[in-house]
Design goal:
Layout (H helix, E strand, L loop, with lengths): L1 H20 L1 H5 L4 H20 L5 E6 L5 E5 L8 E2 L4 E2 H7 L23 H6 L1 E10 L2 E8 L2 E11 L6 E8 L12 H14 L4 E6 L6 E6 L4 H8 L11 E7 L2 E9 L6 E6 L2 E2 L5 H20 L12 H4 L3 E9 L4 E2 L5 E2 L2 H21 L1 H34 L20 E6 L1 H10 L5 E6 L11 H6 L1 H10 L16 E5 L4 H17 L1 H5 L3 E4 L4 E5 L2 E5 L2 H11 L6 E4 L8 H9 L6 E3 L7 H12 L3 H11 L9
Parallel strand pairs: 1-9, 13-15, 18-19, 18-20, 20-21
Antiparallel strand pairs: 1-2, 2-8, 3-4, 5-6, 5-8, 6-7, 9-10, 11-12, 12-15, 13-14, 16-17, 21-25, 22-23, 22-24
Helix pairs in contact: 3-6, 8-10, 12-18
The structure holds ligand TTJ.
Ligand TTJ binds next to helix 3, strand 2 and strand 8.
Length: 639
């Protein structure tokens, strides 16, 4: 027995050593993302306890030293000796790889996702970790460092007989998390709020006790994912008041769906399996889509909104402007695909499709006003799609007739190899003129746009195809948009948005980015989209010229040249104030200019969607909140 115990101990150490050697294999990365992942791994254990119905509150506290405490009011990790290992249950949880949830006694586990690696991994990657268990009027404590027990399980005091729960405090190891050890409140908030939405009635409190940034928030949603949908739609105008909700259990799959249409033209669907986001969808999402398409077509036909001769509504038509959450709980989720993020269980598709079809059919019968609004919107979408197809075909036929017809306003470059070429989308005809005379004609094309382009967040595909400025961009880029998009036809390696360094310029750049993000997002994914950075100031002194791209830089230049009357400082209000030579020197010359490449974090794709909804949608207040929250990241805001 004692020999066995020794062998186990060696195995434990080897296991956790492996985690420290290759942390990325267990938590994805050791960047800020991995650092935050440690918190989620611990919180998941408490959420499992909540799902078992024996815990209703979780406190997450960021301590002044950047350690984090997670405390729940569950049953407490078992403190008794586990027979198989001869160790206390707590010690098993924190020192044996993949031991997480072993004592769960059935039910759904959150810890089944991509990483879901358990508490021992967090322990291995922490400089120190302390666990307290409150049970039977006693406070237990065990301490660890880098995965090894430093102080065995003991009773350190007494507590109220009624109190029960677990508290874990850990400090991420700076040897592992070299990039940063600092927790970001807004990152933690996003995941914890999501967890609370997904677990009806669970109360999660986030406390930041770090000096100068003290904050407390409570996430507690009686309506669960219904409130999640309301939250996602808060920057839009909903098409009807209800949030349609479906819930049920079929063949051991627990299904919840909540949805509401807004008056926009984009779909925002989020799906979860055991509280883990599945951005690539899978069988549960397929079941959802099948149910929606089938049920609305049946309703529209039965109620004569579609005539016998009309085509069926497509899924896309019905999901136009739809915000939805599909959340399922399943005992053995199978993830497939390259990134193991796509659900593969066929019983999940059947369960969602069956339960949603049945409950949605009933809902539509009971709520004919809502049903009519959705069907009308879908039919309009169907017509717009048809009109867009015709507009696109006409454009295509025309260009086939004229040979290849590029927009009249485009000053194209002469080099025919796209790899060498770039296009500047320039705000205004006058700046366009300067840019045309400044450019390198071989490799730089100029497309001037007049005024503000269409806000595509508020327009359907047919209007997008009808807008002259946008059509000019589409033809110039060569790729087509939406379903037709083909990146191999891209005519320029760099698409450079060049607008004035003022509020209007920023607005125009945002409108262009909205268009590109919604209709040709791969251009951003593949890194073809850039923002030009024109200087903010010009300083002239004794016939010499300096350009500054920020207030800090201007201050530095003044320090260098001395502050006196000979300094002539000009604040550039727009590109039009620069002559061609200055524009070339400061903004266009590939040898000297600064370009910002536009990128997006794929793992946070849902954030990008929400940000565009907030910034470009029609509600003012969420936009103001967003700006206030994010203003700290903005430099050189010239208002
Ligand atoms: C499992 O079933 C028997 C009684 O104890 C249950 C249990 O382990 N509950 C539990 C674990 N509640 N909370 C945890 C937990 C909390 C944190 C903060 C961290 C970890 C690793 C577990």
């Amino acid at each position: 027995m004692s020999q066995e115990y020794g062998a186990d101990q060696i195995q434990i150490l080897e296991g956790l050593e492996a985690v420290r050697k290759r942390p990325g294999m267990y938590i994805g990365s050791t960047s800020s993302r991995g650092l935050h992942h440690l918190v989620y791994e611990i919180v998941d254990n408490s959420v499992d306890e909540a799902l078992a119905g024996v815990c209703d509150t979780i406190h997450v506290t960021v301590n002044p030293d950047n350690s984090v405490s997670v405390e729940d009011n569950g049953r407490g990790i078992p403190v008794g000796i586990n027979h198989k290992s001869g160790l206390p249950g707590v010690e098993v949880v924190f020192t044996i790889l993949h031991a997480g949830g072993k004592f769960g006694g059935g039910g759904y586990k959150v810890s089944g996702g991509l990483h879901g690696v358990g508490a021992s991994v967090v322990n291995a990657l922490s400089e120190w970790l302390t666990v307290n268990v409150y049970t039977d009027g006693k406070i237990y404590e065990e301490k660890f460092s880098r995965g090894k027990t430093t102080s065995p399980l003991t009773v350190i005091g007494e507590c109220d007989k009624e109190k029960h729960g677990t508290k874990v405090t850990f400090l991420p190891d700076a040897e592992i998390f070299k990039e940063t050890q600092e927790y970001d409140y807004s990152v933690l908030r996003k995941r914890l709020r999501e967890m609370a939405f997904l677990t009806k009635n669970l109360r999660i409190e986030l406390h930041d006790t770090r000096e100068g940034q003290e904050r407390n928030e409570v996430y507690h949603y009686e309506g669960g994912i219904k409130e999640f949908v309301a939250y996602l739609n808060k920057s839009t105008s909903p098409l009807y008041e209800d949030i349609i909700y479906c819930e049920g259990n079929r063949n051991n799959v627990y299904v919840e769906v909540a949805m509401q249409h807004n008056d926009s033209y984009n779909e925002s669907s989020y799906s979860f399996v055991n509280n883990i986001n599945t951005p690539e969808g899978g069988t549960h999402l397929t079941g959802f889509r099948n149910a929606i398409t089938k049920t609305f077509n049946e309703y529209a036909r039965t109620n004569k909104m579609l005539k016998d001769s009309d085509e069926n509504l497509s899924g896309e038509d019905i999901r136009e402007g739809l915000t939805s959450i599909v959340s399922i709980k399943i005992e053995e989720p199978q993830f497939e695909g390259q990134t193991k993020q796509k659900l593969g269980n066929t019983e999940a598709r059947n369960a969602v499709e069956y339960l949603l079809s049945e409950q949605l059919t009933y809902y539509l019968e009971q709520n004919p006003d809502v049903a009519r609004k959705i069907c009308e919107k879908s039919i309009q979408s169907q017509r717009a799609r048809e009109a867009a197809r015709k507009a696109r075909d006409i454009t295509r036929r025309k260009s086939a007739l004229d040979g290849f017809s590029l927009p009249g306003k485009l000053a194209d470059c002469s080099d025919k190899n796209p790899k060498n070429c770039e296009i500047f989308i320039v705000e205004g005809d006058s700046a366009g003129g300067s840019a045309k005379s400044a450019r390198n004609r071989a490799t730089q094309a100029i497309l001037p746009l007049r005024g503000k382009i269409l806000n595509v967040e508020k327009a359907r595909l047919d209007r997008v195809y009808g807008n002259e400025e946008i059509k000019a961009m589409i033809t110039a880029f060569g790729t087509g948009i939406h379903d037709d998009f083909d990146i191999s036809k891209l005519r320029y390696d760099k698409i450079i948005i060049m607008t004035d360094a003022d509020v209007d310029g920023a607005h125009i750049a945002t409108l262009m980015l909205t268009f590109i993000y919604r209709f040709m997002p791969d251009l951003i994914r593949e890194g073809h989209v850039y923002l030009a950075q024109p200087p903010l100031y010009k300083l002239e002194k004794n016939k010499k010229v300096w350009y500054a791209y920020s207030d800090d830089e201007l201050a530095k230049i003044i320090d260098e040249v001395g502050r006196d009357q000979n300094n002539k400082i000009q604040r550039y209000k727009g590109l039009g104030e620069m002559d061609a030579e200055q524009l070339w020197d400061t903004t266009m010359d590939p040898e000297k200019r600064i370009l910002l490449r536009v990128s997006m974090d794929e793992e946070d794709a849902s954030d990008v969607n929400l940000t565009f909804m907030t910034l470009m949608g029609d509600k003012v207040e969420p936009r103001r909140d967003f700006i206030l929250e994010n203003a700290k990241y903005v430099k050189n805001l010239d208002i």
